[in-house]
Amino acid sequence: MKKVFLFLILLSSFQAMAQFKFLANNSSNQYKAKIFVADCDDDLCRGKATIILYDKISGKELETFHSADLDFSLAEKQDAKIGWLELGKYQSPLIFGDFNFDGQEDMAIRNGSTGTYLSPSYDIYLATKNNKFLLNKELTKLASENLGMFEIDKKMKILTTEQKDGCCYHKTINYSIDAKNNLTEISSIIEDSSLGDIVTVITQKKVGGKMIKTIQRFKTADYYKNN
Hints:
Blueprint lengths: L1 H17 L1 E5 L6 E11 L2 E12 L5 E7 L4 E2 L11 E2 L7 E4 L8 E5 L11 E6 L5 E3 L1 H6 L8 E3 L4 E7 L4 E9 L5 E10 L5 E10 L2 E10 H7 L1
């Protein structure tokens, strides 16, 4: 029985040692994090991961999150095997920002590459008034089925996604988000240059509750020269 107990302790210690450890101290104004990820090979880290979030000022531990595939790259001179390694602001697999425009800092956690053309995908957690985070399914879908993370326009309070199909089809969609975190498509633009010398531009915009569509065609060389 003692041998089994010792074996379990050794196994647990080995598993803890096998994890690679990172600090994300510069991605947020309000939070910092410790990141434990399963695998790092050369300059790429991936696999199951645990993220422990802390208050940046008090240092208080707040919440623990998990990702099935926390995928991120290391800089050339970074070595994950040396122990705790601090990640740069734009290198971290965590993205912070006010995604629903309520004045609170929300968080996106990298979870694989399920976006279009294997682009990065993210789980989206919205901050609550009591400093907790809740996974939002609509925003997670938005950040997992397009060309990477959505863009945020703070001034216009709009979220924008990009889609692509081959070399010649590109679609941009703009969304508003209400107080209950419901998304509404308010406009979009499709650029289709599959005909070669002609670009078909389909614009849709919500006006008075109805989506108004406009179709225009331009010479490819002129259109992309001016856009």
